Amino acid sequence: MLVEAKYESRAIEDVTGETRAKLDAVFSGDDWAKKRVAVALGSRGIDQIATVGRTAIEWLKSRGAIPFIIPAMGSHGGATSEGQLEILEALGITEKSAGAPIDASMETVELGRASDDARILTSRVALSADVVLLVNRIKPHTDFSSSEIGSGLRKMSVIGLGKAEGAARFHHSASSRGYESALKELSRFIIGKYPSIFGLALVEDAHHRLGRIEALRGPEISECEPALFILARDWMPTLPFKKIDLLIIDEMGKNISGAGMDTNIIERGIDGLPRVGRRVDIGAIYTRSLTPESHGNAIGLGLADVVSSKLVAGMDKQAMYTNALTAMTPMTVRIPMHFENDRECLRAAIRVSGKEESSVRIVRVRNTLALDRFIATINYSEEIADRNDLSILETGRDWQFTPAGDFDPAFDLMNQQAGQIR
C-alpha cells in the first residue's frame, strides 16, 4: 500500500524574502563595509540551504561586505579540501551559484585548552575573517541524546569549524566526559574567542521543509538555541507504527544524516543496539543505496542488518574510515551481509526479522528525512483504518521485480506521488 502520513506543513513559502527579513531585523544596524565575512556552510542536505546561503551573501554584498564561503564540516569529504568542495557542489553550492569564492583550507590554529586539557582547534581561515556567519540546521543529534543541544550552530562552531583535527580532538574529549558537557563548554569558549560571530539557525518541519529561520548574534546562540532545539524535536516525524518487522530504507547518506540514517528515526544507537525508550521496535533493517551527494562516505551502513551489494561497491573506504575514526564510531562502518538484488536482500532481511514471508509487516521509506509517504504491507490495513493521521493512497499491488531481481520502477509505488508516476 502507498500510505500518506498527515503532518502539519510549516514550510516557508518565500525563503529568500524570509532570510532577508531576518537579516534586516537583527544585523542591519551593524557596519558591514569592507568586512571580510566567512559564511560557514556544512555537509547536510538541509532544505533550501543553497538559497539561504546565496541570499545571505547577496545581503552582505549589498552592505559593502566581502563575503566568502568556508566548508564547516569537520572531517567530511575524506578530510580534504577537494572532498569538501565536492560535497558543497553536490548540495548546489559553488562559487558561481553562491556568488562568492570558497576557501576550503583544512588548516587549524589552537585557541586554548578545555577543562580536561584537550586542545581546542579552529579554522585558521575563519579566525582570520572579520566576521563569521554560521548557517546550520537545528535538530537532535544522532550520536547522543539531550534535552537542549544537538546538531546546530554550537556544534558547527566546535566540530565544523574545527576541521578534521579539531573534530577528532573534540570527539576524543567527549568520549570520556560526555558529548553534551563537552559541546556546551567548547562552544561557549570558541564563540567567545571569535572577534565577531553570528548565526542563521534553520529548523525543518516534518516534511523536511524549511519552516523557521532565526538570525542570532554570538551571545544569543547559547541562549536561544535550546528553544529552537525543542521546536525541532517537536516537529520531527517518527515512523508510523510501534512495531515494524522489516524496515526498508531506499537511500542513506551524509547529506541525509550524520549517521547516514537518522538514529532518532531508526531507533538504533551508533553502537547498533536498540535505543532505550524507543518509540518504535524494528526487527530488521535493509538499506538499498547510498546517495550520490555522500561521495562514497557510507558511514552508518553498519546500523543496517542487510544492504545491497551496489551500496557496498559504491563505498569510498578512505572517506568513511576517516569520518568513523574522527567520530570514534567503528560500528557505523562495519559492512553487513549484502546481496546482488532486492529480491535476495528482502528474503535475507525477512529471515533476520524472524517472521514468515506470509505475515511479515514491512514498511519502506525513501530515507529517514522523508516519512510523509511510505509503503506498507497490507497487514497494516486495519491499524491504518483506526487512525486519523494516516490514509491509504493506493492498495492492492503486489511486489514486482525486474528480471535482474530489483524492484521494478514501472510498478513501484515509491515512485508514485499524488497519483502521478514521477
What would you say this structure looks like, in words?
It is a single chain. The chain is α/β, with parallel strands linked by helices and 422 residues long. It has two domains: 2-235, 3-Layer(aba) Sandwich (Rossmann fold); 243-421, no CATH class. 33% of the residues lie in helices and 22% in strands. The chain contains 14 helices and 17 strands. β7 and β8 form a beta hairpin. α1 packs across α2 (49-62) and α7 crosses α8. The longest helix has 18 residues, at 218-235. Residues 418-422 have low confidence and may be disordered.
List the helices and strands and how they pair.
Elements: E1 2-5, H1 15-27, E2 36-41, H2 49-62, E3 66-71, H3 81-90, H4 95-98, E4 108-113, E5 119-123, H5 124-128, E6 131-137, H6 153-160, H7 163-177, H8 179-193, E7 197-204, E8 210-217, H9 218-235, E9 243-252, H10 263-266, E10 281-290, E11 306-308, H11 309-313, H12 317-327, E12 337-339, H13 342-353, E13 362-365, E14 373-376, H14 381-385, E15 390-394, E16 416-417, E17 420-421
Helix pairs in contact: 1-2, 6-8, 7-8
Write a brief caption for the model.
The protein has 422 residues and is α/β, with parallel strands linked by helices. 33% of the residues lie in helices and 22% in strands. It has 2 domains: 234 residues, 3-Layer(aba) Sandwich (Rossmann fold); 179 residues, no CATH class.
